[in-house]
Amino acid sequence: MTCGDRRALRRRARPAAALGCLLALLAAACTSGPEGTEGAGQEQAAEGPIVVASGLDVTGSGSVRQQLIEEWNRLHAGSRTRQAKLVELPGGADQQRSQLLGALQSGSARYDVVNLDITWIPEFAEAGLISPMPVAGTGAVADDDRDFIKEVHATTVWKGRSYARPFNTDVGLLYYRPDLLAKADVEADKQPTEDWTWDQLYSSVKTLGLNPVRRDELAGWTTQLKQYEGLTVNTVEAFADAGVELTDSEGRYSSDAGELKKGLDHLLERVDRGRVQPAALSSDETASLTDFVEERAVFLRHWPYAYEALGGRMDPKTYAVNRLPGKAVLGGQNLAVTADSRRADDARELITFLTSRESERCLLDAGFAATRDSVYDDAAQPCWPRVAAALRPAGDSPKAAATGEGVPRKQEADARAAYIRTLGEALAEAVQRPRTPYYGAFTQVLQSHVHALLAAEGPDTAEAADMLDDALRDVFAGR
Fold first, then answer.
1. Domains of the chain
2. 46 pLDDT band (50/70/90 cuts)?
3. Bridge partners of 332?
4. Residue 42: pLDDT above 50?
5. Closest by alpha carbon to 216, among 286, 275, 297?
6. In terms of Cα–Cα distance, which of 318, 321, 298, 301 is closest to 217?
7. I want to staple 129 with a disulfide (CB 3.0 to 4.6 A). Which of 10, 104, 221, 316 is the partner?
């Protein structure tokens, strides 16, 4: 029997196969060649580092995730078997999802911990690729779990069981240009406040007197409407503002054509061509941020990491941030233990460290949104000192200090404190995208139908809603 056969049989959890493989191991017969090199390699792999698979760090912070792994390794320097290793997966979210699914289903890569987009949890849990987290009803562990923001922690749950711990979260925010508003003599009562609405944003845009028809012209606002996940997020936010819910808590389709038309009408109003930057239809996070920086949009819907990113590109006096009008969608990633990890106990302990109060503060300082309520308090635990030192911005380099090139210009302390309060409040009231094992199929169908509607010269939302309703019924039924 080959080692590949042994792994496949083990995944099916057949006792006879397990016994057969044990006998084969005792007989030293489970090898791929005459020297038994594959069997030896597997034995060595079981003693190797705790392997964490994750997407790339988009904050440009100096890789806070890697720095946290290194801090864990320093704290466990005396134990060779407790060391951890971060493996960053290339490509966008869809590519990373495919890589992780393929690796875990085939057993081709030995990952102990996977950093999953929050929308993937039901799919990976339903497929048996990740393990449920231990249930802690009382005591210190339970109290620690309750420190996670309630709606953020809910993203780890599928069918009543938690399969992960929240690592870094995300939520839509509204960035704006006070300098451009002042230049256009927009009065204070037409500028963002804590309880701003979309109608007030539309009114401010109207006051600006803008009607862009070319990509290089100044527009009232911009966002991410390219056919990718950003379009799904913008659509779900518009639907949520219109009171449209696509699924129930168990991932069953709960809408209809009439409700979908209401949501699509709301989205079309939001991205009216005289209101939104013409380039938005082909913009992702990077392109929309560039349009904002280069004065082609006064308002911008974006994620929290943009707050730190803008520090390296703009004068702090020229940008500000507030809560997104209406509903904002949650994003982020959760850490889960793989179902076939040989280091499950160590993996869970590593996850506890990576999601601790100190580690979450490090993530917030680096530009991510933290997942714990306590991190947004004035008396929050500080970031691990050595991690904080490693996350110094590029402007701290001798060359940057001498030339001024690339030196991030930070917001004042009171402005940053206000931003952190705003972020915490936005997270507490954010909404989720549909919770379903078929999320990959759902988001592709939604993007395809909505992008076609937005690109049409004379969009017919009734017809589009009928077609989308039929498609979503198939998707959520697993067809």
1. 1-46 (no CATH), 47-170+328-411 (3.40.190.10), 226-270+438-479 (no CATH)
2. low
3. 169
4. no
5. 297
6. 298
7. 104
